[in-house]
Amino acid sequence: MTMKELARIADVSSAAVSRYLNGGSLSQEKRERIREAIEKTGYQPDAVAQMLRTGTTDHVGLIVPNISSDSVSRVTAGATRVLSEEGYLCLLANTDNDPEKELAYLGLFENRSVAGVILMATVLTPRHEEMLKNAPFPIVVAGQQFRQVPCVYHDDFGAAHDLTERVIAKGRRNIGYIGVIEQDVAAGLNRRRGVQAAMKDHGLDPSALVVVNSPFNVEGGRAAMAKLLEEMPQVDGVVCATDLIAFGAMEVLRQSGRRMPEDVSVTGIGDSWAGEYIAPHLTTAHFYYEQSGETAARLLLDIMAKKGAPGPIHQTMLGYTIVERDSI
């Protein structure tokens, strides 16, 4: 159905229908007739045509690294809830932790003329910097601190530091760290630095930290723990960059005959729901992922409302809560 046909059914002009759809001034009588005609016919305005007329769209792009991740799904839930309440539809793009796919989706959303984008980025390359700087739509980064654009991120350094302090407080001195690629500054570099800073604060040599990197999954945690045991058989404390990695590490420790927490203390980061149900229950850092998504969405809505007007680049760091359970 066209706008002209809808106008005929409502017994108004096409211009009146256009004003109704675009929030223009209109008498209450005409507004009610148009509303009834829309309900009767199920009329849906053409999104592309509306974008060409108004220069706006009700679509927001959401680029995420791994939708199956518990943390990513929670950020996504928070962001989409806030955006949907304001009438925006989210176009979800899953990159499988591939920075090249992040760039490809940014280009795709540019061609589709979205109103804005929330990017849960993994790394910041020169090409990322260029695209973020020149994007024709507002972008908010979630999960990383990118100084060039508005962002919402977590205190990764502080969380890893506090967890390591608790491990050391249990008398552990032979500490290993299972991390992720350090091009991922938040989960990789900052968390490893937090572990080493805690070691230094307690008189341990931070350069002696044995580091093994892993993918962001349980299988990677298993492989990394096996390698860590080869390199450091005397390990009595293991700090893991994520909960999923910690789950894999704990499985290998059990298979090797190491008791937790009697022989080895283990921690993760992220507070996955499964940490409450495995044995022993996992000590971890709770990040406020849903709040992160909500904050990123509200920040994006605020920028979109200003329609390109210059303003400050907001950098929001969220806190964390240490959840101490049985594994340390």
Describe the protein in words.
The chain has helices at residues 3-10, 14-21, 28-41, 47-54, 70-85, 99-111, 126-134, 156-169, 185-201, 218-231, 243-255, 289-305; strands at residues 59-64, 89-94, 116-119, 139-142, 151-154, 175-179, 210-213, 237-240, 265-267, 284-287, 315-318, 320-323. By secondary structure, it is α/β, with parallel strands linked by helices. Helix 1 (3-10) crosses helix 3 and helix 5 (70-85) runs parallel beside helix 12.
**Major β-sheet profile:** 6 strands, parallel
Please estimate the helix content: 40-55%
Q: Structural class of the helices, strands and pairings?
A: alpha/beta
What assembly state would you assign to the polypeptide chains in this entry?
Answer: single chain
Average pLDDT figure: 91
Stretches where pLDDT is under 50 for at least 5 consecutive residues are none
* Helix/strand order, N-terminal first: HHHHEHEHEHEEHEHEHEHEEHEE
Q: Can you count the beta strands?
A: 12
What is the general shape? elongated
Strand order of the largest sheet: 2-1-3-4-5-11
Report the total helices. Answer: 12
Distance between the termini: 65 Å
Q: What value does the Rg take, in angstroms? A: 25 Å
Binned strand content: 15-25%
